Amino acid sequence: MSAGSALGIAAAVAVAVTAIGWRTVLTMIAVSVVALAVVGFVNVTSIVFG
């Protein structure tokens, strides 16, 4: 990840936090992390059992 995209993500997170508050942002991040974990797990199991 380049510094530019990291700064862009940080700025987007800062704007989101200011607009909708910490709890909503943290919830969204948690949901996306869980979704990625589930997708990865499904991919691995389909490769193992495929």
TrEMBL record:
The chain crosses the membrane at residues 26-49. The keyword Membrane applies. Keywords: Membrane, Transmembrane, Transmembrane helix. The keyword Transmembrane helix applies. This is Major facilitator superfamily (MFS) profile domain-containing protein. It comes from Lentzea flava.
